[in-house]
Amino acid sequence: MKDVRYGSEIDKMPNVAFRLMTLVFRIRNFFKPMSRSIDKFGIKKGSVVIDYGCGPGMYIKRASELVGDEGLVYAVDIHELAIKSVKKLLAKYKLCNVKTVQTDGNKVEISDNTADLIFALDMFHMVKDYRSFLLELNRIGKRDCTLILEDGHQSRIKSKEKVDKSGCWEIEKEYKKYLICKPNFF
To answer: How many domains are there within the chain?
Structure first.
C-alpha cells in the first residue's frame, strides 16, 4: 500500500501488518525488554522528547519516566493504530506528560524549536522524501537538539547518504544501530 506523504511516497503499513508487528514486539519484549535501550540516549529530567514513528509505543513509558513530571514526551506516528495503542498505554500507566500527535506525513503539529531530543527508531527506511522529513525534524528541534536516527531496514551507507544530502543535519557520532545528529540551521 502506498500513501502520498512529504510530496513523495511513503509506505504506510496496512492495519494487519501493524497488528502483526505489535504482536511480534510484545513477544520480543517479553524476553528482551527494549524500552531500556533509550537509557543511553541521555534523556534528562525536564526535557522535551519526541518519539517520531512511535509505533505501538514500546519506548513511551520509559521516556515518560526519564523526562519526569517537568518534561514532556510527544508520541508521533502516521498510523492511526499507533496513536490508539499509545493512548491505551497513557491510560493504563496514567502518564500525564505524554502527548500523542498523528501526522499526515507533512508538517507535524508541534511548534518550532520544541524538542531537546528526537528519536526515530526503525522507521527512517520507510521515508521516501527524506529531505522534507529531515527538514521537518529540524524545524521542531531546538538549536541544540539531538536527533537519534536508527538505520532500520536500510544500510548505514544509505542512512548517512540521506542525512548528508538533506543538508539540515550533521552526523556527530555513529553507533552500531543508529546515528547521532545535530541540526544545521540556515
So the answer is: 1
